[in-house]
Design a protein that fits this description.
mainly alpha, Growth Hormone, Chain: A, two-stranded antiparallel ribbon, 16 helices, 2 strands, 80% helix, globular
């Protein structure tokens, strides 16, 4: 399969890869109560396990930005994805905090860069006016993981313990690895030393820095709350494991269709307008969810659907917007740094969230209401950065349009 000729099929294959990366990460969160009980973890330990994955991914992404384009990206993806499979299997045999932490570090180190390389291959192969739809397709992996993956993982955990979901993820990833190996051609040439040094020097363009800042804030606002929603619904709202699976199913099903729709809206109206609307709208469920009454399953499902659809879809216009400012030759490196920043944001946010939360003697979480205001404030900062990025981009476009005219007058 040649990516340049069949970007739509490529999008679905990479969506499958993204699905396994997400499942390995997302299934950990609703398994939090069982993990804390079986492995004797405190909330701080659990927050550290979540953060380890994301911070390792961030570090590897930053390091990889110095050499990524010097290698054939297909081979990079295959090696990294194989490492992820090993790490996911290692999570299944964890016996305590130390072994779980080591497994999460390895998983994060491989997963984040795998996602960046996949996205770079796809964006480079997709025309600019179709990138919203392509990114929306990949983002359906978030929805499928919630619709099928997380509920199935919870079901497997209810039968055979928390280890079963990680075994299932490793097996699915192994199947997808064989498909990548068999069907992907060499999708991108290696950059020359001159091009590598040039793209390295372009990192600190103002638009790029603002794009990375926007990514950090968009991700951090969500991950201040997301890792703790499962425990909150079980311990504070009194949901049973079966009801929790239903909640995640509803949120994922709605997000699956919403992500595709948002991708089309981005292609039609532009990423900046759609992102601004989503940032404003997402603050509502962020503030409302921690204030839900216990025992109201229908209301909880509705609030979770609003939370997940609006929060997860914000990354579609964000990715389209920030990559549009980057030439194809530098896109893999830019996305590696962007992924590192994204993972770092989620890791820092999860750590901050865990530090600001406490538990009662009965296991209920305390402090989520206060944390929701912090998330709303971070979202407000994201709106300010978005405005600055749009103004700077428009100014650069006007300057570029005037340059040929100035040259003509000088001639």
């Amino acid at each position: 399969m040649k990516l340049e000729r069949r970007p739509d099929r490529s999008a679905w294959l990479f969506a499958g890869v993204e699905l396994t990366l997400l499942l390995d990460f997302m299934v950990l969160m609703p398994l939090g109560p069982e993990l804390m009980r079986e492995l004797e973890l405190s909330p701080a330990h659990f927050g550290a396990a979540v953060s380890a994955y994301t911070l390792a991914s961030a570090l590897v992404g930053l390091l990889a930005s110095a050499w990524l384009e010097r290698f054939e990206l297909r081979s990079v993806l295959l090696y990294l994805y194989a490492g992820f499979i090993v790490a996911s299997g290692a999570c299944a045999v964890a016996s305590g905090f130390g072994s779980l932490l080591a497994a999460r570090l390895l998983a994060g180190a491989c997963a984040g860069l795998s996602s960046s390389v996949s996205m770079a291959l796809l964006v480079n192969a997709t025309p600019a006016d179709r990138r919203g739809g392509a990114v929306g397709t990949i983002m359906t992996a978030y929805s499928v993981s919630a619709v099928a993956g997380v509920p199935l993982g919870l079901w497997l955990a209810s039968l055979w313990g928390f280890r079963a979901p990680f075994i299932a993820v490793a097996l699915l990833a192994l199947l997808l690895w064989t498909m990548l190996f068999a069907r992907l051609d060499a999708a991108a040439p290696r950059a020359s030393e001159h091009d590598a040094r040039r793209s390295l020097g372009q990192r600190w363009r103002g638009e790029w820095v603002l794009g990375w800042s926007l990514t950090f804030l968009v991700v951090a606002a969500g991950f201040l709350l997301i890792p703790f929603l499962g425990a909150f619904m079980v311990e504070n709202l009194g949901l049973e494991p079966r009801s929790l699976a239903l909640v995640y199913f509803a949120g994922g099903a709605a997000s699956f269709f919403w992500s595709r729709y948002v991708g089309k809206l981005v292609d039609r109206f532009g990423p900046s307008r759609i992102l601004a609307g989503l940032l404003v709208a997402s603050a509502v469920p962020h503030l409302a969810f921690p204030r839900l009454p216990a025992g109201a399953l229908t209301l909880t499902i509705a609030a979770f659907v609003g939370f997940m659809t609006l929060t997860s879809s914000r990354m579609i216009p964000t990715l389209v917007l920030v990559t549009s400012e980057v030439p194809a030759a530098a896109r893999a490196r830019y996305l590696a740094i962007n992924s590192a920043i994204s993972e770092g944001a989620s890791g820092v946010a999860a750590w901050v969230g865990g530090a600001l939360l406490t538990t009662t003697s009965l296991g209920a979480l305390k402090g989520l209401e206060r944390l929701s205001w912090v998330a709303a404030a971070v979202t407000a900062l994201a709106l300010l950065v978005l405005g600055a990025l749009v103004r700077r981009t428009r100014a650069a476009e006007r300057a570029a349009a005037r340059e040929p005219q100035s040259l003509g007058e000088a001639a």
